[in-house]
Write a structure and sequence with these properties.
Blueprint (H helix, E strand, L loop, with lengths): L8 H7 L19 H11 L17 H13 L10 H12 L6 E8 L4 E12 L1 H5 L5 E14 L5 E8 L10 E3 L7 E2 L2 E2 L2 E2 L6 E2 L3 E7 L2 H21 L16 E7 L15 E4 L4 H5 L31 H4 L1 H4 L8 H44 L5 H43 L25 H26 L3 H18 L3 H23 L1 H25 L2
Parallel strand pairs: 1-12
Antiparallel strand pairs: 1-2, 2-3, 3-4, 4-5, 6-7, 8-9, 10-11
Helix pairs in contact: 3-12, 10-11, 12-13, 13-14
């Protein structure tokens, strides 16, 4: 371990990522607050005293989610984690050293053939998501990103096409909103970013967001359960549509991002405007590949500090750095201002291509007809079978070739019609729904919360532990008998369905499940009489069906 107290941008840039077998990291807090200092901070100094979580996060998820949460909490016994008191010490150090300095963003401009991308990188001294907001993790340092995608308008100016906000290392279309989306709030021309308390995830609307993090070992189990649910839906038409459960029913850890917009406001037209700095002028942001905070040796990496805007933890480049358009799922999504021109160019290419395809299709059809005439003439003569077979194969190949060209010609015609129709709509200023690209967008939780909120919160806090204790007690009394364990589990699921307003679904599933078990038992006990009866019924049906066909001849 090498300590460098005289860290500067130049030092970090020269240090890079350090040797291959070492981990380079910075450290903001050297000494956590002791117990007395921590009590004083929480009772006198902390602005968190004014924060209210609202409905507890465990009351917003099911019983399976609470059991997963308990397992996740136990995992900290084996994982490296940020020591207690570090979050409070970071808050005190930030307040005493840099709290009054103007906030800073680090800007970067990337130009692509379609977009001019403006990236705004924000650095937070500490991520206190776990310690103060019951979130997934704590770690020193936190880099977040906002990307704006501009296109050149006909007058030579810049128009905002899309805005994308980073959230929990995700990527893809769900991170972005179109410039005319009502959810994209603005102050003048500046988009508004709602920051999650502690996690610093970015959102477009204020509110509480239920965040689900699926662990990789559970992904395969979840896929298998979804396949079983699809079979259940197909055969018995129960439980909703076929095609998998919605995202909020997955086997995942549940946390809440509090992005209510009731905290400190930064930026234009506020009391604390940003100070802008270019990324290219910050050598540490370009060259340093180490961690921007404490290294806790967490094998899940949740409690380790993140790397900077350019690098991943393994030293590779971030997608948002080398491909900001792909990071937001914008490849194949041209700017509105350029699409009509692109359609015109595509129609011109298709017109030329269609002419070539039409000529080739006509020639192929004529060739098939010529081969057909030859084969018909040979079939009237005592021609050798081998020659007839060869001519027949040639005709089949020519026919397939002609059909393929005609199919391609039809597809080109359909594509030309679609492009012409889309160009007509675009020229009229008509666009599709600005939210059509969204699949699983972040949506704020409804404020009313679950029914019987206080009782539901108490149940959510106790249910997982009571279930485990109850199963242990039942197993101790009844030993290896599974029926009491299943009855206890069923009782807990029944109570859970009451709070989640899924009692009807629970009763339907229970009745159908019991019916299937009953049928299985009957089939097992009386399989021979059932086999004889089914065979006899099949024989009678075949005789009746064949006689009916004979009479109707």
């Amino acid at each position: 371990m090498v300590s460098r107290p005289d860290v500067s941008q130049v030092v970090l840039a020269k240090w890079g990522g350090g040797p291959a077998d070492t981990v380079s990291y910075l450290q903001f807090v050297r000494r956590p607050l002791n117990t007395l200092e921590l009590v004083r901070f929480r009772t006198q100094q902390s602005p968190l005293r004014q924060f209210h979580r609202g409905t507890l996060r465990l009351a917003r998820v099911g019983l399976a989610g609470r059991l997963l949460d308990a397992a996740f909490a136990l995992s900290f016994l084996a994982r490296g984690r940020i020591p207690g008191g570090v979050a409070a010490a970071a808050a005190v150090a930030f307040r005493d050293n840099v709290g009054d300095d103007p906030p800073v963003y680090y800007g970067r401009v990337t130009r692509t053939p379609s977009y001019t991308v403006l990236q705004y990188h924000f650095f937070y001294a500490y991520n206190d998501y776990r310690s103060h907001y019951r979130g997934a993790n704590d770690h020193e340092g936190d880099w977040e990103l906002v990307s704006l995608y501009l296109s050149e308008d006909p007058d030579g100016g810049a128009a905002l096409e899309w805005a994308a906000y980073a959230a929990h290392d995700r990527s893809g279309p769900d991170l972005r909103r179109r410039g005319d989306d009502p959810e994209l709030e603005r102050v003048g021309e500046h988009p508004v970013l709602y920051v999650g308390a502690g996690s610093h995830a970015g959102f477009f609307s204020p509110g509480d967001y239920l965040i689900r993090i699926e662990l990789r070992p559970l992904a395969r189990l979840r896929e298998q359960l979804e396949e079983l649910r699809d079979v259940w839906r197909r055969l018995l038409r129960q439980g909703g549509r076929v095609g998998g459960e919605p995202e909020d029913r997955r086997l995942a850890l549940a946390f809440v991002d509090y992005a209510r917009g009731d905290g400190r406001m930064l930026g234009p037209r506020t009391e604390r405007p940003f100070e802008a700095r270019l990324v290219e002028e910050q050598p540490a942001l370009l060259e340093y590949a180490g961690l921007w905070g404490r290294y806790s040796q967490d094998f899940l990496r949740g409690e380790d500090a993140p790397t900077g805007p350019r690098f991943n933890p393994d030293g590779s480049l971030r997608t948002s750095w080398y491909d900001p358009v792909g990071w937001a799922g914008l490849h194949g999504v041209p700017p509105f201002s350029q699409e009509t021109e692109m359609i015109a160019e595509e129609l011109e290419k298709l017109a030329s291509s269609r002419l070539i395809t039409a000529e080739a299709a006509a020639a192929a059809a004529a060739e098939a007809e010529r081969l057909g005439v030859r084969l018909a003439a040979l079939e009237q003569l005592p021609a050798p079978p081998a020659e007839l077979e060869g001519r027949s194969v040639e005709l089949e190949e020519a026919t397939r070739h002609a059909q393929a060209l005609l199919r391609e010609l039809g597809e080109q015609d359909r594509l030309i019609e679609a492009l012409q129709e889309r160009r007509t709509h675009l020229l009229a200023g008509e666009r599709e729904d600005p939210r059509a690209h969204l699949r699983h967008p972040a949506i704020p939780e409804r404020k009313e919360g679950p029914r019987l909120r206080r009782l539901a919160e108490t149940w959510s806090a106790l249910s997982a532990g009571l279930l485990l204790l109850g199963e242990v007690a039942v197993a101790g009394v009844f030993r290896v008998s599974p029926l009491p364990l299943l009855l206890l589990l069923g009782a807990f699921i029944f109570v859970e369905s009451l709070f989640s307003r899924r009692l009807v679904v629970f009763v339907h599933g229970l009745v159908l499940g019991l019916a299937l078990v009953t049928l299985g038992i009957l089939a097992w006990e009386f399989w021979w009489p059932i086999f004889i009866a089914l065979t006899a019924a099949l024989g009678v049906y075949l005789i009746w069906s064949n006689l009916a066909e004979l009479r109707g001849r």
